[in-house]
């Protein structure tokens, strides 16, 4: 079994001399007998290999005849120049059911970055625009909100996504908002179609759809999900077995995926985290603002590959250690907002429980890797969970010293109440 529970048969291809190929992407993976497992709270939409791209897109074109889909593509200047972004643009040319595409460009201080991005997305036509968050016009708008007490001074993916949502909210015809990352190595249009369809088909009734996928090449990836989030949520369930939010998070197969779709109403109502807690923060906002029965998750693709972060065990200010701390403090603050009392003893208990559960997970992953002929660095995994265990208590200390933390960016309902014309002015900044 691979990380998302599906059975696979993996064959090492050979070269002309009959030796095993070493390239991770050279592996041929054939999926057999997809599972039908449904979690207890949210609907899981499996990839049963029975829906063709042509049929999916036909349904999408029919379903979007009277409503538009807005696609948000957060990208940095470096990712914009990488090969995956070019491939994504090429695939989107034929995704004619997408009514509006906004490329939210961040970490791009030079006007040359903006101009190059516009050139790259030119094949998508007038429906695609570049929102340059580092540009002087947008920065001026940010300054107005900051002066009014709205926390927008922290740059990053969260602010880029929030800004793009505001741009799309100014178009009354956009009813569905879709987001995916721009560093997906094996991107295909079918990925996008599966993410969109649950939200727009008239026979379905969902307000939020979260993606999941298998992150496997010649080895298992997704270390933060496998070695931190999954065992940590189990540890939380031991300490707070009646907590519905923890149970809700535990229903997601890949809670840190950067791909999701949601209704216009949620795009307007959700606050947005400005740090690595973005994905978990989004789930907490969905939990607050809609019914659980209107939440689903969808299997996007047989394989999913994008760039990997450094572990950075010796530096908690970057890499996966920074990500782990942001995720954990986001969860702690969400629980505290629900009236859960989190004391020092709770953090100590959670660390001990997490470590034991994570060690059991490593035994399971090692077995999984062995049967599927995957490379598995058991020692490296053990080192990672020990580092993550330190994060469990370190994040507790951060929470205890600052229970509120960096405030989430307020929802667009608040912004539009204070600045009714702000989305319209934002739209005028987009090129």
TrEMBL record:
GO molecular function: glycosyltransferase activity
Domain of life (superkingdom): Bacteria
EC number in record: 2.4.1.266
Entry keyword annotation includes Glycosyltransferase: yes
Segment forming the signal sequence: none
Matching SUPFAM superfamilies: Nucleotide-diphospho-sugar transferases
Keyword tags: Glycosyltransferase, Transferase
Disordered: annotated span: 1-21
Keyword Transferase tagged: yes
Protein known as: Glucosyl-3-phosphoglycerate synthase
Phylogenetic placement of the source organism: Bacteria, Pseudomonadati, Planctomycetota, Planctomycetia, Pirellulales
């Amino acid at each position: 079994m691979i990380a998302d529970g599906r059975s696979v048969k993996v064959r090492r291809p050979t070269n002309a001399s009959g030796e095993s190929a070493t390239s991770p992407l050279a592996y041929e993976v054939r999926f057999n007998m997809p599972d039908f497992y449904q979690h207890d709270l949210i609907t899981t939409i499996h990839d049963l290999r029975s829906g063709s791209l042509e049929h999916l897109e036909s349904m999408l074109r029919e379903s979007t005849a009277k409503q538009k889909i807005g696609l948000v593509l957060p990208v940095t200047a470096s990712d914009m120049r990488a090969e995956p972004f070019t491939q994504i643009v090429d695939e989107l040319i034929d995704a004619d059911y997408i009514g509006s595409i906004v490329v939210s460009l961040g970490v791009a201080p030079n006007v040359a970055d903006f101009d190059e991005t516009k050139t790259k997305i030119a094949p998508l036509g007038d429906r695609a625009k570049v929102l340059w968050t580092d540009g002087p016009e947008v920065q001026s708008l940010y300054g107005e909100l900051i002066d009014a007490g709205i926390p927008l001074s922290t740059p990053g993916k969260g602010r880029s996504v929030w800004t793009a949502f505001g741009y799309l909210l100014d178009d009354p015809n956009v009813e569905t908002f879709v987001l995916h990352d721009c560093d997906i190595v094996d991107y295909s249009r079918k990925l996008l179609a599966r993410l969109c369809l649950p939200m727009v088909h008239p026979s379905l009734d969902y307000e939020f759809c979260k993606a999941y996928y298998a992150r496997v090449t010649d080895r298992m990836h997704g270390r933060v999900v496998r070695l931190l989030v999954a065992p940590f949520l189990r540890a939380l369930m031991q300490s707070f077995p009646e907590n519905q939010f923890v149970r809700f998070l535990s229903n997601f197969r890949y809670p840190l995926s950067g791909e999701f779709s949601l209704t216009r109403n949620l795009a307007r109502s959700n606050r947005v985290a400005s740090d690595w807690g973005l994905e978990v923060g989004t789930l907490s906002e969905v939990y607050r603002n809609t019914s659980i029965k209107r939440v689903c998750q969808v299997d996007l693709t047989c394989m999913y590959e994008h760039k990997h972060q450094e572990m950075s065990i010796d530096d908690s200010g970057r890499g996966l250690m920074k990500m782990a701390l942001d995720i954990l403090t986001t969860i702690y603050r969400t629980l505290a907002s629900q009236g859960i009392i989190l004391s020092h003893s709770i953090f100590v208990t959670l660390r001990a429980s997490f470590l034991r559960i994570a060690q059991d997970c490593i035994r399971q992953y090692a077995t999984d890797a062995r049967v599927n002929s995957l490379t598995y660095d058991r020692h490296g995994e053990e080192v990672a969970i020990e580092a993550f265990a330190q994060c469990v208590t370190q994040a507790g200390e951060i929470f205890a010293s600052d229970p509120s933390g960096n405030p989430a960016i307020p929802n667009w309902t608040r912004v539009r109440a204070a600045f009714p014309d702000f989305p319209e002015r934002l739209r005028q900044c987009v090129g």
